[in-house]
Amino acid sequence: MCGIVGYIGKNGAKDILLDGLSKLEYRGYDSAGISVLNKKITTVKAKGQLKNLVSKCEKVDLNGNVGIGHTRWATHGEPSDINSHPHLSMSGKISVVHNGIIENYEELKSNLIKDGVKFVSETDTEVLPHLIEKNYNGDLLDAVIKTTKALKGSYALGIISEDEPDKIIAVRKDSPLIVGLGNGENFIASDIPAILKHTKEVYLLNDNEFVILKKDSVKLVDFDKNEIKRDVYKVDFDDTAAQKGGFDHFMIKEIYEQPQAIKSTLNARVAKGEKIVLDNIGADDLKDISRVFIVACGTAYHAGLVGKTAIERLSGIPVDVDIASEFRYRNPILDKNTLVMVISQSGETADTLAALRLAKEHGCKTFAITNVVGSSVSREADFVFYTHAGPEIAVASTKAYITQLIALYIFALYMAQDKNYVEKSVLEDVKSELLTLPEKVKEALKTDDAAKKIADDIYKETDIFYLGRGLDYAVAMEGSLKLKEISYIHSEPYAGGELKHGPIALIEKGTVVIALNTNNELKGKMESNIKEVVTRGAYIVGILPEGFTDIGESYDKIIKIPDTIPLLAPVTAVVPLQLLSYYVAIKKGCNVDKPRNLAKSVTVE
Ligand code: M6R
């Protein structure tokens, strides 16, 4: 949801900013811009993907060692050159990049207009350079502090001024921002990959912390300009983890990284015959928990649906799963024995973060499953479970989802191990099977060819249905989301038994139905549901375990996945669905890693 980068140092800012933006493009890619300061500020902005900005920059003199850049996901004002960031003050001496939303911008704007300020864009952000200029009295930091006191909403800001060319001022509130620490050069960025080529040492900022970034120094201060000391965080992955590494797209690379990602999630947490120990959770910390709420958005929500079944089946603790944007406004009944678990790959999703804060206000214990070390949810939750999947760059989540599933199984086993809801031997069996999943997912990746062939058959469809019962239904939801977000094919997931209550009216000759049927106990029921649509002419693609041999004649195409226990089948079943979506999108010529209208990290409500 918009990416920010800033540089001050000994080298040319332009190339560093453009390179940094290329690593942040997953956050928004409808327009981009940079400002470079060399006595005067020169700003170049371009609608569309970053490459448009890069070619525009070739024609402009952008020498200078200080600059800020931005890649945009539009909220206020359509994507256009004018609405792109950076935004300038009236004098042109102050330039600002912003990630977030200024909720009271209309009021601020009308006051500024009364003061004679002329606005050129339709954005909420443009109030910022004008306000900073109005508040400027010889000290840029003071002007920024004063300005932020007037703001409502979320923001990560990078600011440069011709009057103070030796610094970048930055601040964050409810939008991510990190500081990269170099040698004779320093950086700000929305995310670590943007600066990883230059440094692995960073400061992770908290809300309402201001940064005075100079070539040779970085100082953090609060609203009263008291200095804040911060430990240096050493990044434990390198630049190559955030590259395509020979794959055509990040998405397919990340799909293929799943066996390793699962190993990293399991690592040091699960071992045969041993109790599960979770970082920083004491033996008694969760013993009084009588109810769990899982709260998340999108793909992470789908992982939560699988988590519900795992936790309930193994520990007997009742679980509700909520979409974060609904949870936060529906007055959920919460108390101190409720654990609110948020799941978020980025750890910055605005609604998920708000849900976490709401849970804390109600005195609940909070638990975050996230992939990003130091992210907002990881810092605000009482307990954190890092999935350690490595950076996920493609907008469509794959390895983050699969590792969220693993995290949820581990959590379910953890909650179950001191209860007698199911026999210990059952827990041991689940644990043993969990440890086989890296290999089984490697096997499941061999469905690649089959998925590609089916993609060739179905890529011209305009409506595709996904069907499943039990956990297969939760996976169907994820498969359907994956397909629609990257291929733009309309798709609906349904519980097998629900179709006849209305949606079956949409089935006609040739309608493609992806039918998941992985659970022996539900197999017969699911086959009846499949027959109901076959009778109406549907074209069935079945996702079935190897072990299912008596499969009848309902399927037009079958993809076989490795056998596992039904509880863990979502892990293997999702793999061909990810591949299918990928190949359908490729066949349609879609921009797989950067689908239209989307952004990786949704830091606005
Ligand atoms: O970073 P988060 O896990 O909080 O993100 C949640 C959703 O925005 C995300 O999963 C989204 O649905 C993905 N594009 C799905 O592929």
- Give the % helix: 25-40%
Low-confidence stretches: none
Cα-atom Rg, whole angstroms?
A: 25 Å
Task: Tell me which ligands are bound.
Answer: 5-amino-5-deoxy-1-O-phosphono-D-mannitol
Fraction in beta strands: 15-25%
In spatial order, strands of the major sheet run 3-2-4-1-10-9-11-15
Q: Which descriptor suits the 3D outline?
A: globular
Mean pLDDT: 95
Structural class: alpha/beta
User: What is the count of helical runs?
Assistant: 18
Number of strands: 25
Spatial separation of the terminal alpha carbons: 11 Å
Largest sheet: 8 strands, antiparallel
What does this molecule look like?
With 605 residues, the chain is α/β, with parallel strands linked by helices. 34% of the residues lie in helices and 23% in strands. The protein contains 18 helices and 25 strands. The strands form four sheets. The chain has an eight-stranded antiparallel beta sheet, covered by helices on one side. The protein is globular, with a radius of gyration of 25 Å. The structure holds 5-amino-5-deoxy-1-O-phosphono-D-mannitol.
